[in-house]
Structure formats: structure tokens, C-alpha cells
Design brief:
By secondary structure, this protein is of the alpha/beta class. The protein is 48% helix and 9% strand. The strands form 2 sheets. A 4-stranded parallel sheet has the order 2-1-3-4, covered by helices on one side. Strands 5-6 form a two-stranded antiparallel sheet. Strand 1, helix 2 and strand 2 form a beta-alpha-beta unit. Helix 6 packs antiparallel against helix 7. The longest helix is centred in the middle third of the chain and has 26 residues. The N and C termini lie far apart (48 Å).
Length: 215
């Protein structure tokens, strides 16, 4: 479907047929009450992101960096949504449908305050869910305020605090500068933690370690 077909679909007021190749965009759309007609690597989303859940029956269009072009063609989307790091796929994907890219992580830092909220608003506007986008941002801000209070209580013990995520028994992710989680806890309050985390990451990069046995 070409650009003029997408514009006609938007003007008609019917729900857009969206194929989404980025999990963060999928997560936000589902939270807004919008279900894409195709999503990349659904099993991986269910393992890593989990919620909001992808409804049963949504087609898996293949890998995020190598979707099935035949399946995309058959789904006939109005629009394909990607993140800015997937731009190299644009020429290929635009043979099938218009493509729109969204940027969350940039060198500007503070991805939540600077980008994630705006992307949520843009998705709400795109899908006719402006009110839902506003509500989602407010709910998220309240949830993060509660998290900041818990972090502040932990800081009273004057011990270093690192923000990590367990991927499996052998791999963890450590959040440093320009990442979404530290940015959610406020720029000034998280600066010290981010600096510490970056030093820790530098130490690990210079001295590789096995993490087997982590439970």
C-alpha cells in the first residue's frame, strides 16, 4: 500500500492496519488499546516484555531486523512502524507500505522525559487515541514517583545502588547513561548512580567475567 492509500485510510477514520517491528512501540500501542495486525518476534516479546500481553492470533512477521516480506505483503498494512536504529530497512519496507520511525534512545540522553512521552503522544495522535496517551503518561508518572520514593529510601543506607535486569541465569543488563530506567528516576538524583554504573561497566569491559551460577 502506497502513501496515498495510507492517507485515504487515515481520512476515512477507520483503524489503521499497523505492522510493528519494535517491541517498545508494540508495548506502547497495546497499552493504548491498539492491536497491530503484525508484530515481529512475538515469542521474544512474551519472554522479555511480557506486559501488556500480545493477543492470541496476531501474526508474527519474523525477525525485527529481517521480517518476512511475503507475510508483510499479505497483511497489507497501512503503515509499518520501526525504531530509529532500524532505518536501514526503510527502502525495503517502503516497497510494501509507508514507514514511520520513532527515536527513543539518542545521545541527548533522558530518553523517557525527552522522547518516550512524545512518542506516546504521537502514537496516540496517529491512532486516534489522544486521551488514552494522556492517561498512560499520567499513570506512568505516578508509578515512577512511587519508584523514586522507594529508591530514596534505599539511598539512606549510603550503599551504591545499581539498576540491573536479569535476562537469564548467565546474562544481566546494567543500566547506565542515556538509558530509559535511570532517566525515569529523575536527572539530578540518578546522576550519581549513572556515573557509578558507567564506571562499573567500564571495569567489566576491561576485565571479562563469567556469570554462570547467577540465580
Amino acid at each position: 500500500m502506497r502513501r496515498h492509500d495510507f492517507l485515504l485510510s487515515a481520512a476515512s477514520g477507520r483503524s489503521l492496519r499497523l505492522v510493528v517491528l519494535d517491541w517498545g512501540l508494540v508495548e506502547t500501542l497495546l497499552a493504548l488499546g491498539v492491536t497491530p495486525v503484525g508484530i515481529a518476534e512475538i515469542d521474544g516479546y512474551r519472554d522479555s516484555v511480557v506486559e501488556p500481553p500480545v493477543p492470541m492470533g496476531v501474526p508474527d512477521v519474523g525477525l525485527r531486523l529481517a521480517p518476512s516480506l511475503e507475510l508483510l505483503q499479505n497483511l497489507a498494512p497501512d503503515l509499518i512502524l520501526i525504531n530509529s536504529s532500524q532505518e536501514s530497512q526503510r527502502p525495503m519496507l517502503e516497497r510494501i507500505a509507508p514507514v514511520r520511525a520513532f527515536a527513543i534512545y539518542t545521545d541527548a540522553g533522558t530518553p523517557y522525559h525527552r522522547h518516550a512521552q512524545e512518542v506516546t503522544r504521537q502514537l496516540g495522535q496517529l491512532c486516534g487515541r489522544d486521551g488514552a496517551a494522556h492517561t498512560l503518561i499520567e499513570q506512568t508518572d505516578r508509578f515512577l514517583a512511587q519508584g523514586r520514593a522507594r529508591v530514596a529510601a534505599l539511598r539512606e543506607h549510603a550503599r551504591p545502588l545499581y539498576l540491573i535486569r536479569f535476562f537469564d541465569v548467565r546474562h544481566i543488563g546494567v543500566y547506565g547513561a542515556h538509558k530509559l530506567v535511570p532517566g525515569c528516576h529523575g536527572r539530578a538524583r540518578s546522576r550519581e548512580r549513572v556515573d557509578r554504573t558507567d564506571r562499573l561497566l567500564g571495569h567489566w569491559r576491561s576485565r571479562p567475567r563469567k556469570t554462570g551460577g547467577i540465580a
